[in-house]
Structure formats: C-alpha cells, structure tokens
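ok so heres the complex, five chains, lmk if somethin looks off
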Amino acid sequence: MAKYLKKLSKMAGQAPGTLVHIGDKKTDKVRITIFDYNAEHYTEREAGNVEECFPFKRTPTVTWINIDGLHDISTLEKIGSEFELHPLVLEDIANTAKRPAIEIFDSYIFLLFKMIYYDNETDKLSMEQVSLVLGKNFVLSFQEQAGDVFGPIRDRIRKGKGKLRKMGPDYLAYALLDAVVDNYFIVLEKFGDDIEKVEDELSETPGQDTLKWIHECKRNTIVLRRAVWPLRDVINSLVRGESALVKKTTEIYLRDVYDHAIQVMDTVESFRDIISGLVDLYLSSISNRMNEVMKTLTIFASIFIPLTFIAGVYGMNFEYMPELGWRWGYYAALGIMAVVAVGLLFFFKRKKWF
Amino acid sequence: MAKYLKKLSKMAGQAPGTLVHIGDKKTDKVRITIFDYNAEHYTEREAGNVEECFPFKRTPTVTWINIDGLHDISTLEKIGSEFELHPLVLEDIANTAKRPAIEIFDSYIFLLFKMIYYDNETDKLSMEQVSLVLGKNFVLSFQEQAGDVFGPIRDRIRKGKGKLRKMGPDYLAYALLDAVVDNYFIVLEKFGDDIEKVEDELSETPGQDTLKWIHECKRNTIVLRRAVWPLRDVINSLVRGESALVKKTTEIYLRDVYDHAIQVMDTVESFRDIISGLVDLYLSSISNRMNEVMKTLTIFASIFIPLTFIAGVYGMNFEYMPELGWRWGYYAALGIMAVVAVGLLFFFKRKKWF
Amino acid sequence: MAKYLKKLSKMAGQAPGTLVHIGDKKTDKVRITIFDYNAEHYTEREAGNVEECFPFKRTPTVTWINIDGLHDISTLEKIGSEFELHPLVLEDIANTAKRPAIEIFDSYIFLLFKMIYYDNETDKLSMEQVSLVLGKNFVLSFQEQAGDVFGPIRDRIRKGKGKLRKMGPDYLAYALLDAVVDNYFIVLEKFGDDIEKVEDELSETPGQDTLKWIHECKRNTIVLRRAVWPLRDVINSLVRGESALVKKTTEIYLRDVYDHAIQVMDTVESFRDIISGLVDLYLSSISNRMNEVMKTLTIFASIFIPLTFIAGVYGMNFEYMPELGWRWGYYAALGIMAVVAVGLLFFFKRKKWF
Amino acid sequence: MAKYLKKLSKMAGQAPGTLVHIGDKKTDKVRITIFDYNAEHYTEREAGNVEECFPFKRTPTVTWINIDGLHDISTLEKIGSEFELHPLVLEDIANTAKRPAIEIFDSYIFLLFKMIYYDNETDKLSMEQVSLVLGKNFVLSFQEQAGDVFGPIRDRIRKGKGKLRKMGPDYLAYALLDAVVDNYFIVLEKFGDDIEKVEDELSETPGQDTLKWIHECKRNTIVLRRAVWPLRDVINSLVRGESALVKKTTEIYLRDVYDHAIQVMDTVESFRDIISGLVDLYLSSISNRMNEVMKTLTIFASIFIPLTFIAGVYGMNFEYMPELGWRWGYYAALGIMAVVAVGLLFFFKRKKWF
Amino acid sequence: MAKYLKKLSKMAGQAPGTLVHIGDKKTDKVRITIFDYNAEHYTEREAGNVEECFPFKRTPTVTWINIDGLHDISTLEKIGSEFELHPLVLEDIANTAKRPAIEIFDSYIFLLFKMIYYDNETDKLSMEQVSLVLGKNFVLSFQEQAGDVFGPIRDRIRKGKGKLRKMGPDYLAYALLDAVVDNYFIVLEKFGDDIEKVEDELSETPGQDTLKWIHECKRNTIVLRRAVWPLRDVINSLVRGESALVKKTTEIYLRDVYDHAIQVMDTVESFRDIISGLVDLYLSSISNRMNEVMKTLTIFASIFIPLTFIAGVYGMNFEYMPELGWRWGYYAALGIMAVVAVGLLFFFKRKKWF
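and the predicted structre for the whole thing:
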C-alpha cells in the first residue's frame, strides 16, 4: 500500500500532462508487437521501433498495436502525437497507480484497467496496469511488462477461429477486456482455495499465524475491490453506447463482460463476508482451546487442594490427637483422601465440567 | 465456493459464444419433453431426439420444450440454430455458474435463474440452474438434471385447471418462475427450522460444533442471497414491460412473483440479522459457562487456603507452642477451621458470588 | 419465524389465484359488519350472510364492510365476484403471510398491512393482517379475527364527530390506516418500557436471562421493521396520487400518516441502535462482575500463600533450627505472618487492586 | 425515550385535526409577543390576548408573532381560524413529539423543527419544538416555553442592524432557522468537550461509570440525529424554491443554513465514529488493567509454590533423612529457597512477564 | 475536534454576512501577491496594500491574487466590495471551520477546500482552508497563512512551461485545485508509512500505546474524510459545466482532478478497512500474549501441587506409618515426586499445552 502511494505522491507538483513514468520499471526493453487483420488475411510483426506502427494507422484493416514497457517516455510521446492522444491520456498510461477509468473522446475511447496475478509463492496479489485506446480502425494496448493473458486472443486472430477476424476493433477491445475479467476468476479460484485452507486450519490447529493469514486475505480482497469496483462503471459507460466507435452488435458482448464483472464483485463480497466470519471462528477457537487448558488445570488443582489440607491436619503437632495413635489411622486418612478425590472427580463429571 | 470458481475459471481464454459445458455432469442422458397445448387440447410427449421438437415451433399452440441435461453440446447447438438463439445465450445456458440474468431480444426473452434444494442430510443447499427462452409461441426450459419443481404446472396443463391453458407462453414462463420462487419458501422454512434448532442448542449445551453450525448457516444465507438478489432485478425487467412478448394481463402476475422475491430477500436478511445475534449469544453463553466453572473452582480453593494455613501453623515445630499441649487444642483447631470455612461460605454467598 | 415460513411454503405449487387460507384459523365464525353513511344519516348492521352486503354496493352513500375471519373461502369468493376483485387480490387477502403491499387497479385500490399487538404476558409481538379494498363508494376491510383498533372510527361514524361523515371512502380508508399506524406508537411505547427495564436490570444484576431478553427485543425490532418498512412505500404510492379514487383533499392527510410511519421507522431504528449498545453494556457488565470476583479471590489467595510458606518453613524437621528453641519463636513467627499479611494488603490497596 | 413515546401513544385513536397538547406543560402562562417592522420603523409589543395580533395580519409590514406555551388549545384554535391554518398543522404544532417536517401550502409554509439545549448539570440533551408559519407578510412562531435562541434576532430588528429590516418575512423565517442551527454548534461544542473528558478518563482510571457515560453519549448522538437528519430535508424543500413565498434572494441564505445543517450532521457522524472507537479503547483498557493484576498475582503465587514444596519435603517425618541431621541443613534449605525464588524472578523478568 | 467546534459556536448569534474571523490567527501580516500573465508576458508583484490589486481587475490578462492571512477583516471587506462578492461568500472565507463547498454565481464561482499537512513530529494532521474566487479574468485565492503547495504553479507561470500561460483563469483554478489534491497523496503516503509501522509493532511488542496509536490513525482518517468527501461533490459541480466561466477544454482536466479525488477517497476507505483489521489483530495479539503467560504459570503450578501433596502426606504424624521407617523411604518419596513431575510434564506436552 505504502509503495503504491509512494508512486502517486511522485506525481504531485507536476504540470498536468507531464509524462512521468510512475511505477516500477518492470522490463528493460520496450517491445512493440503489431497484429493487422481482416476477415481474409492477417499480419503479425514485432516492430523494431515505434515508427513502424504508423503506416498501419491508415490501412482499413483492424490494427492491434501492443506496447510492453512504459518507462520509455519518448516512445509514448511519439505514439501520442501520431495517434493524437490527449496529454492527460498519455499521463494516465504512464502512471501505473491510476484506478480503472474510461474517457470517451470523439475520435477514440481510452480505457484503463488492471490485470491481477496471484503469486503462488507469497500468496500475494500483484497488479499490472493495462491501457487500451480504441480508435476507428486500431486498438493500442499498453502494458507494464511482457507476459499477459491475451495469448488465446492472439491465437484466435492467427487461426481465424470465431468471429474475431470478422469484427471491428471494438470487438477486439471487448475481447481483451473479456480476457482480463475472465482472468479474475482464475485469481478468485486460487483465493477460494486459500480460504478453504484457512478453514481447514481453523478446525485443526489455529495459531497466531492463522490470524495474520486471514488479515492477508482481507487485504487481498481490498486490492481486488479497488481493481473491480471501478471497472464495473467503466464497462457500463461502454455499454451505454455513448460512442459511435462501439457498434450495436458489440454491445451485447460488452453486457456479457459487465455481467462477469458483477459476478467477480459478488464473489469478492462473499469472500469478505466469509473472511469476517472466519475471524469470529478463529477468535472463538483460540479462546476455546485456552479455556479448555485452564479449566482442566483448575480442576486438577481443585482435587489436590482438599487432599493437601487433610495431610496438613494430620501433620499438626497437637499432643492429644487420638487419630494419630490409631493402628489404621494412616490408612484411614489415605482412604478418606481417595474418597474425597473420587467424589470430586465424580461431582465435576456430573457437572459436565470435563 | 472453490468448486464453483473452478467452473468459472475453466471458461477463461475461450472465445465468446464457445459452447463449453461448465458444471458437473449431473445426468447421463439428455431428456427432452414436449408439452403442446391451447385452451381446448394438449399433447405431451418425450422426444427421442432434438429434431422432434422443431415442428412445434411453427404451430400456433403454446409449446413448452423442457431439456434436462446440459452436457450434450450438439443438442444445444441444434436447438440454438433452429430457434435462432444468440451464441452468448447458448454459452450462458451451458455455463451453470452464471448468476441470474435476463436478456431481452426482439424475438425472444432469455431468463436465467437458480432452483435451490435443501439437502436434508448434510444441511447444505444445492443449486440447479434453470434457463428459460420465451418466444412468440414457445417456452424452452433448460435444466441440469431431471427432477424439478414444475410437477404441479405439468398437472395443471394436463387437467386444464386454472387459466394456464387459456393463456399464452408468457403466462407459462411466469408459472415456471413462480414455482421456483415458491420453492424458495420451502427452503427458507427448513432453514428456519435449523435456526430454531440452534437456538434450542444454545440454551442447553452449546459446543464448538454449534459455532461451526452457525457459520454454515451464514454461508447458506450467502448462497441464497446470490441466487435471489439478482433475481429481483430480473423479474423487475420483465415487469417493466419492455418487451411485447409479455402481455399486459401477465404483468400483474409477474408483479406478484416480484413481491414474493422481495419477501424471500426480506426473510434472508432477517435470517442474517438473527444469525449474527446468535453468534453473540453463543459467545456469551460459552464464556458464561466457562466463567461459572472458574468461579466455582476458585471459590472452592479459596475456602481451603486459610484452612491449610491453620493446619500449617500447628504443624510448626516450635518448642513453646502452648496450644499444642492443650487437652482440647486439636478439636479447637478443627473448630476454628470449621468456623472459618462456614464464615467464608456465608461471605461469598452474601456477595452473590455463587 | 419458522411458523410464518410454514405458512408460506404451504402456498408453493398452487395455481396463482387459488384461494387457500394461509395462517391460523383465529376465529370460528365469519362476522360481517356494515356501516353505511353520508353526512346526514348512517346505518350500522351485522350481516347474517355475505349477500346482505351487496345492495349497498349500488347506493351513493359510503359503505364500509368489515369481514372478521378469513378461513371461509366461499365468503371471500362471493365478495370477490360481486366486487370484481382480481383473483390475486383474493389470494393475498387469504394469505396472511404477505408483506404490506399496494396494488392500484382502475376501479379499486387494494391495500394490505399489519396490525401489531403487544402481548403483555409473553412480551412478544403478534401480527394481524388487515386488507383494504377502496372502491368508488365503498371500503372493504378484511381481518383475521374480531377485535381491532378501529373502535374510535366506528364511534366517529356513529356520532358524526369530525369530518369523517362528510368525506368519501378514501378518507375512511385513510382513517383506518391512521388508526393502525397510531397503534404502532402504543406498541413502541411498551417496547420502550421494556428497554428501560433492561437498562435498569443491567445496572443491577444482569444474568444470562438479560441477554436472552435483549435477543428477544432484537427479534421484535426485526418483526416491526418487516411490518413498517414496506408500509412506507405503500402509503407513498397512495400519496403520489396515481389514482382518481384518492381525492386531492385527502392527500394531505395521507402525507400525515406517511410522516407517522417514518417516525415509527425512526424510532425502531433508534431502538436497534440502543439495543446494540445494550449488548455491549451487558457483556462488559458481566465480564466486570466476573473480573471483580476473580480479582478478590486471587488477592485473598495471594495473602495466604506466603503465610503458608512461613508455616511450612517452621514445620521442617531439621535438627538444628535455632528459632524453634526460642522462647517466643512461635509468637515471633505469628507476628511475622501478621506483618506480611498487613503489608500485602497495604500494597494491594495502594496499587488500587481492590 | 419512553417518555417521548408515551406522548405519541396519547394521540392514538383521536380524529385527525383534533387539538391535543402532547408534551409536558412547560409554562403556565401563554405569552404572545409581536414584532411589526419594515425598513423605516418597528413596533414591539406583548399581547394580552390572542385577538390583539389579528389586526397586524392586514398591515403590509412584516409581522412576527411569537407564542410561548402550547397547552392552551383555545389560543391555538383562534390563531388557526384567523390565519386559516389547516387542522393538521394545528395538530402538529400542539404535538411536541413530531419529527422535523415541512408542509407547503398555497398561502403559507409550515415548518417544524427542534431547538436543542444541553443541560450542563445532567449532561443530557433536552429538546424544545419550534413551529414556524411563514405567510405573505407574517411569521408565526410557536414554542413550548419562554426562553429561546432568538435574542440576537430581536436585537437586530430593534437596532435595524444588517438587512433583516429591509427584507421580507421569508428572510425572518430564515434568520430564525439559522439561529436554531447555529445553536446546534454550541451543543456540539459542549458535546465535544464531554468526549474529550472521556478520552482523558480512559487514559487514567476508566471505571464502569465511564462505559455508562459513553452509552449516554451514544444516546445523545441518537437524539441529535433524530433532530438534524430530517431538518436537512426540510431546508432542502425550502431551497428548491417550490413556493413563491420564498424569494430568489433568500435562497442563497437558505443554502447557507443547509450547509450548516450538513456540517452538524457531519460532526454528529464523526462523533459516532469516535465514540464507537472509545468503546473499543475502554474495553481494551479495562481488560488490560485486569490482566495486569491477574498476571502479577499469578507470578507472585508461582514463586511461592516451589518454596512451599521444599518446606514440605523437609517437613516429612522419614526416619532416615540425612539432610535433617546436617549442621547447616536448615540454612542450606533456606538458601536453596532463596536461589529458586531469585531464579524464577529472573526467569519471569527475562520473559518480559512483568 | 473540540477546538474546531469552539470556532463554529463563536459564529452563533451573528447576523448572516457579518465578517468574523473564525480560526486561529496563524500569521501576523496579511500578505498579498499578484501574478498577472498571458501567453506572452507575466508580472509578479507583492502588493503593499489591497488597493494595488484593483487595477488588474480591468486588464484582459489573467490575474491571480493570493491573500495569506484572514484575520484582517477590513482587507476582506475591501476586496469583497471591489470584486462584488456576496456577503455570505466573505463570511465563508473568513470562517475557517467551513466544510468544502462550491457556490456558482453569475459572474464568479466560489470554491472552498482544505489543504492538509502532516506534522512529522506529532503524527497529527493539520488543515488549512483555501478559498478560490474564479472570475472572468481573475482568480482570488485566500489562505490562512503563508506557505502552501502552489510553489510549482508559480514556477510554471514564471517559466511559461506547459499550457498554463496559454489558458484562462479557469485553468489556473484547476491547477490550484490539482495541486491541493495531489498534496493529499503525499499525506496519504506518510499515513500509509505509519500504518505499516503499526503493523510491524503488532508483530513484535504491542502495548497499550499501540492501541492509542491506532485510535489516532482512525481520527486522522475521519479528518481526511471530512476534507475529501465534500470536495468530490464540489469538483463534480464544476465538471457538470453549469457555468460559462469554466471552458469546455478545461473540463477534461477537472474530470482528471475528480478522478484523483475519488482515488484519495478510495485510499482513505481502504485505510479505514485496514485499521479496523488492525484493531482485531491488536486485541487478539494482546490476549494471546496474556494467555501464554497465564497458561505457562498455571502449568507450572499444576506440577508442584501433587508434589506438595505427597510431601504433606509424609509430614503427617501418625504413629503407624510403615514407610517412614523404611531405610530408603525418603529417597523413594523423592523418586515418586520426580516421576509424577516428569509424567505431568510429558502429559501436558503431549496435549500440546506448551
């Protein structure tokens, strides 16, 4: 959290539209890949420099330019001026601490959202920011680093499976968005596994670590909510069809993504509910175990206390204590002690104290 | 929960409209039953294959085609192309992890909701997804497996009771929806019984199991809410009369189902309130019992402590301890001990400590 | 709660509009009373059978037909067909488990709400359902049993006090609604008394019963909310003047009832707040008392522990223990014990431990 | 609370518009004061009877008639019929248990709100109801008793300071409302002082009283919320300019009062947050103190337990116990005891147990 | 909090528009600085008295007049009459206890918001009120004292960097607002660091101070919310473009600030969530530590209790106790004690009690 804020405070005092890369430099080289396609054919190419992309802008085919790596400000600036992007849009692309947002311009739509990865080793969530610019016949996508969830989409373009190749750039933008939202379900699944693990732990041997773990889960839900809540509004703005760039036929697909986003939110909220129940369960479990120990020990002590008293009585040094002289006095005393002990055990048992 | 997410994550990376059956294969054979009726006569038939249904599409009578079993993708595809369903609709039908939704098309309305069963043995809720397609003169219903809550509706068609036979397919869709929502009340009743059982347990012998049980109840309310909350919006969309497929005269009936859905929600919310009160009651009850035990034992110990001290005093070996030589010294000591014990008992009693 | 759900689940599987009396049969005989009045004269009559009411339908005077007892389905059906009520309206009248609702038809308005009684003996709330049908020149009221809060209204009709006799049936409906809402205040008052009693108990001798009592209060607020929340919407629909059956001049009166309903809600919400504060107070009070006991006993024990140790030391059997031979050794030992005891008492006192 | 409900339940069963004074009779004599002014001159007079006010109704100057004391029904009725007030308005004026409300009529606006006083001695809040009737050229104000927060306004009329004398009756109504809302800040200030006192107590010596005090604070916030929440809506209705009686130029002033009301609400909500934090702090502080005591005593006991055991060993009466015959055996035993005691103390210290 | 209320209650009883400086006098001298610029040139000047500013009002260039120090009422009044500000606006400028607000007039827009500083030494937040008046060709800004977050904006004017010099006064107002909101991120960052520090403390040695610290954090979030929540509405009013003073081209920038404000709110809400989780963690950690101590001590005592009992038995003075005469009786007794002690230790270990 602190790290994320550190990024944002870096921005303070800058003129709006100043391009500052905010975030970790996650990759060394900026990598630009281009897909250009229509229903009949497609080209795939890795661009050596940013200028190679520009000719595609003027072709009637759908062009998808993907940029991995945001730290090279000059690349962003060149793309910005070629595609006539608003300075604030460029600022947002470079600032990886933004929350999901949408900005609809006359000639393009700017979309910003988060990819979420679940780190299997640390059980922590990590975020990567994705920005999309949807123009008349192109889609620009900006990512912080190589590696994404768009592999199946690239395959669909290559193989011409489904309707992707037959549809316009708005459908491509939808497909990218859909891939990101679908990926949330994978994260949620892992998350759900974790919660089940905690539940198992709770019924066995909960420790101080379990609570820290629950606390970690809580923070993860907070991260997820920050990524998904605003996304809902973003998709909703797209669905409402305020821009001619989104065709009527694509709207039903967007509504589908919207439903998925809602479902993610729903699940996150359910997780919150369940986790808060787990805290109760944990606290009660810990206190029950503790109580069990204390109760057992106290009962144990309570049985010896009267016995020790009896021993104390016959340890007194009075001259006239008839019992002391009895032949079987000692055994009688031991017998009485046994009776008392058994009697107390029986009494406690009947009271259901153990 | 994890299982439910496993299903959803299966979907990730698929092209939209790809038909993948998501969910457990709950039945082996796909079973198709057809009801075809108007006010005068009705036909009931079990179809051997999906093509048998198609002729009914063109008859002016109301046709209800019910499909049990969603794992046979080819059946779905055939129905989809015959009835001109949108690929996303087919995807939703096959994906049993969807939340309740409605999609209004020009020529048909697609409805998706959940049947809930209460498993009497495990006290768990199970869901089955039901999808309805309401067309001009037909209703398609898709279920995961045989066995449903539509028995009384079939009877009403057969016997011509009520107005069902006189009304159109929109009324049939309403009747199916109504049957599902009415069924929620049966689940709620069982649920209410469970809560009462917990309340009884709480006033008798609450244990760690009781809390787990309460936790289970909580999760069940979460499941119920996920099924019913969106249903409300679904019915509301129908009621608002946005489609010509729903006739004016049916709207009042839909409003009635809507009222029932609200009532289900209300009850679920009340259950949540009551359950959260039960957690308090449980924790307080556990801690009260524990306190009772500890208090009793501590009082018990406190009475013996001064007695043992007195015994210890007269167990000292000083040469000059006049009491030791007294004739009735021993009995005096015992007497003093008795007085102290009774005094303390009386004191604790007066303080209302037990 | 379970009982209330039992009623609702009875309804499942019935055709809509099927008349089933849902609820306890609270009275044996159906009792029908008729008031017919205008500004000049009034008639009051108890009808032997339901047909006696029908002539009044055609008179220009205001007619109030009150039916006590809902289990006689045939009576309801006759009224239904004479006054042309929708089958769902009749179903709602017979189903006493409905939540407050309003349905505005062209020729009549259907209102459903709850009378609440406070049972002084069990401190529980009981509900009775009241349904109103407001027509052009009549008001039908349906109750589960004889005995209601409409006495003063009958008196006002009889005596011609106020404007009731001069106004139409919409004003009568308002008056009945007003009587029910005013009655909520009486229930709230008793409820408030109860809460004060709990507060008194809390400062004296809280026990496990107190918590159960608080839990009972909580459930009562849940019952109240279920009755009043939807009523607000019901009245609001009336006020918005969507029906010509409600005259402009009556609207200000309805707004007044609306204000009262809000005030009831407000008070219920305040009660919820206060009750949840009481739970905190209770738990803290219980734990404070327990702590007090444990602390006192522990201090008590702590004083005797060193004394017993000293006695133990001089009970050792070493041959060379010079103190044992001293003339005043015994008294010195007792003295030291006294000093230790007083010293500890003083120390604990100064630490403010008791 | 109970008292407040007692008032309301008195109203039940009355015909609407029946004038019943609900509330405590807080003053014996009804006192009527009249201010009549325009920009040039002003008259101030105490009226002997209610009829003296009536001539002012017809003058073009602004007239402010203030009535202290609501128990004299006949006075209210005379004013009501002279100023043509709706019976429900008179009922609301007399019923001091109403929540803040507004009713806009064609010829006048009726406003009802609460003055809040902080009783310095009991630390409780008390409310007084104020009703305003704003007409074309007059303002009627009704209070339960003499003594209010309108002193500065009277001074401003007398001295002609500010714009009050130049403006119409709507501005006067605004000024009265403003005075009441400003007074809330004074109450809040005292309230804030109280909360600070509690915070100081919490860091010193929290007791059972502290919690009761916090509970009292909570109830006070509930009272405040009931007074201020609806006031917001009341002022908002005025601001929206639905009545010609409120001039355009006055609206900005009303918006200012509205801002103040929001600020009061904000502060009350902050208080709620802080108070709920104080409960946590209190509970933790109490439990920490208790833990401290128990821990110290337990450590104390734990040191003596092994010592007493050693003394017990050498108090055994075996014939062959070589240590007993040793010359320095006694001192060695004492030495061992000392070593054990110091060792344990050291051990506990190192474990940071005290 | 109390201090802040003290300010507000000072205002009570004043005529509206009365200029009273409410707040601490934070600076002695009122300091007025003037920037006057267009795309080509700029002037910067410190004004000796308020009249020096007036000529700039009539120039077509953009003029930014900044006033540090609000206690000099006469200065405010002169500016107010020269720039024709509404008396209530002047009152709001002088009253530093206002919450963020906006008032749109025909000829100017009045904006009020809060600068927040984080005091590194006391870890407390302090607020400074900033008021902006945005006119046709000027911006007035009022601050409580010298020192602000506008340094970079002054630099941008001086150096002509960015578009600031080319844009109108609405862009300047935006830039000032943006600087304030960006500054919130810096505060949030420090705040986030604090929370991390607490988390570290919690896993090491939580004390009573930790809780007080958490309580302090909570109060800080309350302060932040009070500053930011209303700001959102303020900016939103600006964005909605209700005034011709805000140009179309500036709107997208305002939307950007709006996004930032939302992000601040989001972060504050996340902090609230995290902090409330920390309270749980703290309480559980404290109680775990305490439990650990008590458990260890109780186990320790439980081992000695039976040993002492055995010693007591052989300390009895019966004449016939054969063991006492045995040659190895003493050692046998010691041996039994050792066996019992080791056995108990083993038993407790196996039960996982320590």
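quick notes: Chain D touches chain C through 62 residues (CB under 8 Å). thats all i got rn
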